[in-house]
Amino acid sequence: EHIFPRLEAADWISLLNTNRAMHIMTSSFLSINKVLSIARPLSTISPSMFKALTENATNLRTLNLSRCSWMTDELLRPILRNNNKLVCIDLSHCNECSEGILQVLTVQCPNISRLILRECKWVVPEALDYMAYHRNLNKQDRTRPATEDILQIMGKGLRTNVKSRAKSKYCGKEQLYLNLRLKTFKPKIKTNLSKMNPHILEVDLSGCEMLTDANIANFVSVFRHLQIFKIGNNSNISDSSMKSIATNLKNLHTLDINSCYKISNAGLFTIAKYCKKLKSVDIGSVQFAGYLLSFMQGKDISIIKNGFCNQGYPSSPHTKMTAGSSKVEMLDEADLGIMEDNLLCVKGGRTQIVSKDQEEKRRVCHLED
Questions:
Q1: What are the residues facing 161 on neighbouring strands?
Q2: Distance (Å, whole) CA 46 – CA 56
Q3: Nearest 5°: CA angle at 165, between 164 and 168?
Q4: What is the Cα–Cα distance from 286 to 12, expressed in whole angstroms?
Q5: E strands within the chain?
Q6: What are the beta bridge partners of residue 89?
Q7: What is the pTM of this model?
Q8: How far apart, in whole angstroms, are the C-alpha atoms of residue 84 and residue 168?
Q9: What digits encode the pLDDT tens for the residues 51-88?
Q10: Which has the closest alpha carbon to 197: 78, 86, 102?
Q11: How does pLDDT run across 234-262, given as a tens digit for each residue?
């Protein structure tokens, strides 16, 4: 109970091959084991060893398969089906898997809160959309049923049947019958609903090059409780995704947009202004204006550039740095007004700066329509 969890996967394999008694003891532990990490290159686990470790596993919560280049759908699918309580899974750099494994993961493991798919080139837009669609469908299915309808069905036999002179034994039957007919009746019955699935808190889609702005918008509109979102190394991501993230992810505290060269100053500013809990942004080698990065640091947001946390941006809100040079220029009051009083609005693929008043009018017109 206390020794086996402290051992590595290779140690478990050795114990399985020691003798019959140790094999039984180790197998018993593996059937209830909660954490399995065989991330390479440190691990030397082979596919046959992986099967031995997981053939009886039904209680896994964390599964780390990072850089297991031999991992395939055939090996992984039974694990996902037998471990429905899985909470965290890391499939980064598992290039032999296919998009079909995401469908199995979505259906069989509804408790996932941490999903790492870094550099998984097989993650296609359709797979991510299916994941969002399935979770959204489950939310609709778990809505509170109409208690009035249930009581109407139950109440049909509660009243005394005058014709057959059969008197109901239910106390308060007449009052219940009359209450059910009132439109203002609010039942006090508490229905036993299934517990909501835990929210997904962390998703890493860095290097998933086929994803687009539309996929990101659909994804964040469903998984609104994301706290860590990594979408770096994707040339398709633009300001449109930044607007979707700023609109939906109010709990976001870590964002990775490394090597997303289509994101402009307006997109990053939208994130900085509307994601109130944001604490860290990885911009990699993307060049943003120095005054914008200074503005973010003024909001206690750490800027990670090329793997390092930079603190050397102009501290004055009235200075700006020209991209690609070390020249510091004065920031006009008009620029400050745009930075503070406007938000990013993307229409028809074109980025525009729209004032808050214009945006509010647009929302009101949309609601009226």
A1: 166
A2: 17
A3: 110
A4: 45
A5: 35-37, 62-64, 88-90, 114-116, 202-204, 228-230, 254-256, 280-282, 302-305, 308-310, 319-321, 328-330, 342-347, 350-355
A6: 63, 115
A7: 0.72
A8: 46
A9: 999 999 999 999 999 999 999 999 999 999 999 999 99
A10: 86
A11: 999 999 999 999 999 999 999 999 999 99
